[in-house]
Specification:
The chain is mainly alpha-helical and 228 residues long. It is 52% helix and 2% strand. It is built from 11 helices and 2 strands, in the order αααααααααααββ. Helix 2 packs across helix 3. Pfam families: EndIII_4Fe-2S (PF10576), HHH (PF00633), HhH-GPD (PF00730).
């Protein structure tokens, strides 16, 4: 029976506890060695799988090693170098622009503030949060990607729809020392079990807490649609 606990705080605590046990090694799946590589990888990962990004950046990071390299790049060549990435033409422009701004305003380094990061082309709050957390060990919020967006709504942790609103809604109920882990736990669970189209509710360790469980509920709270 998918029945949430009495409060969002209790629901969050139980979800985190169970997912830590299920995915003890959950962490970021993008490959990077420097802050710049992290920034580039996260920009490329928008609406693209981490697996594909890792394939592309394996060669990309050998060719482009600094902000200077991206700033000086021919945009058409850069687009070709990231071919296979979703919206590769647009993202080539973002990477070149990022290189230029890092050179002009930050001495070629990746900045460590939300404001400076979100001033970069192609960088929104989600991307900035990832860079801050994994590049600078600064945790200012919760990264809300598609998995977090979907699963928090399914679990009844939020009724908000936009990532920014979801983050704002979750921050008071998710313990601050779990903000970073919370994202990776839900991403791991979203990939393994609570998929977008056909979640495996039968084998889900959260099924008894989930008001969207297909086993005894009619509606996917993530989409508001009736289960097919």
């Amino acid at each position: 029976m998918g029945t949430p606990l009495d409060s969002r705080e209790a629901q969050v605590e139980e979800v985190i506890d169970r997912l830590h046990k299920e995915y003890p090694d959950s962490t970021i799946s993008l490959n990077f060695a420097t802050r710049l590589e992290l920034l580039v990888a996260v920009v490329l990962s928008a609406q693209c799988t981490d697996e594909r990004v890792n394939q592309v950046t394996e060669d990309l990071f050998e060719k482009y090693e600094s902000a200077e390299d991206y700033a000086a790049a021919d945009e058409e060549q850069l687009a070709e170098d990231i071919y296979g990435i979703t919206f590769h033409n647009n993202k080539a422009g973002y990477l070149k622009g990022i290189g230029e701004i890092l050179l002009e305003e930050h001495g070629g380094d990746v900045p460590d503030t939300m404001t400076a990061l979100t001033d970069l082309p192609g960088v929104g709050r989600k991307t900035a949060n990832v860079v801050l957390q994994h590049g600078h060990d600064v945790v200012e919020g919760i990264v809300v990607d598609t998995h977090v967006q979907r699963i928090t709504r399914r679990l009844g942790l939020t009724e908000e729809e936009r990532p920014e609103a979801i983050e704002e809604d979750l921050m008071p109920v998710v313990p601050e020392d779990e903000w970073q882990a919370f994202t990776h736990l839900l991403i791991s669970h979203g990939r393994a079990v609570c998929t977008a189209r056909n979640p495996d509710c039968t084998d889900c360790e959260l099924e008894d807490l989930c008001p969207s469980s297909k086993l005894d509920h009619d509606t996917d709270l993530a989409s508001g649609e009736v289960w097919s």
